[in-house]
Amino acid sequence: MQERRLFFELLQHLRGDVARSLLEGIRKNTREMIEEQEAVRGRLFTIQDVMQSTVRAWLQDRSLRVTHNLAVFGGCGLVLSIITGLFGINVDGIPGASGTPYAFGLFAAILVLIGIILIALGLLYLGLKKPVSEAQVQVRKLELQQLVKMFQHEAETHAQVSKSRPRNNLTPTAADIIPADADYVLIQ
After folding, report:
1. Are 119 and 79 in contact (CB under 8 A)?
2. Which residues contact 33 (CB under 8 A, 6 or more apart)?
3. SS3 string of 85-127?
């Protein structure tokens, strides 16, 4: 807002098309620099968001892995609790077991075998998850570095496009008329 007000005040005091075009060029270059700074700022925020989401995903994955492992161990504990509860039954009342001295030992062995099979199947199908290895962390770091390089390349490309052209390709301006050692500026 203040930029426009200052621009119009200067424009009213300047005379001649050369001075006006010079001021208009300064205004245009200033606007382009501001837009370029906003684009770089947007890229930096994008990089920051990507890095934060990566850290968040890594922490969430780690938390899920711990929860999964605890659930597997809890399931194994449940099976063992059921087996322990069944040890409290009275085997003398089971048909075909009356008068057999090894009925309880046989029943206990069958329950232990079933428990081992259930635990093995649970670990086989549910499995314990492995922690994140250092190699996986390095791979993710390289991915992020590639992303940062891509954004840097885009910023450099944008800067090259918006670079000013060499002076010899431009049309003459009031600055070309002023001698190099002059301490004054002529406004016509």
Report:
1. yes
2. none
3. HHCCCCHHHCCCCCCCCCHHHHHHHHHHHHHHHHHHHHHHHCC
* Domain tally, the chain: 1
Domain that holds residue 67: 2-146
180 in any annotated domain: no
**Whole-number Cα distances in Å, 156 to 4, 40, 142, 151:** 29, 10, 21, 9
- Indicate the pTM of the whole model: 0.39
Q: Contact, 51 vs 145, CB < 8 A? A: no
C-alpha–C-alpha distance, residues 81 and 83, integer Å: 5
CA-nearest of 174, 158, 179, 185 to 24 is 174
pLDDT of residue 151: 74
Between CA 126 and CA 123 the distance in angstroms is 5
**48 membership: H or E segment, kind and range:** helix 17-86
DSSP 8-state symbol, 71? H
Give tens-digit pLDDT for 109-162. 887 888 788 778 777 777 666 666 777 777 877 887 787 787 777 767 766 655
User: Would 185 be classed as within a structural domain?
Assistant: no
Residue 44: both structure tokens together: 């930096």
CB of 14 closer than 8 Å to CB of 20: yes
* Contact criterion met (CB below 8 Å) for 98 and 127: no
Query: By the 8 A CB rule, do 23 and 174 touch?
Result: no
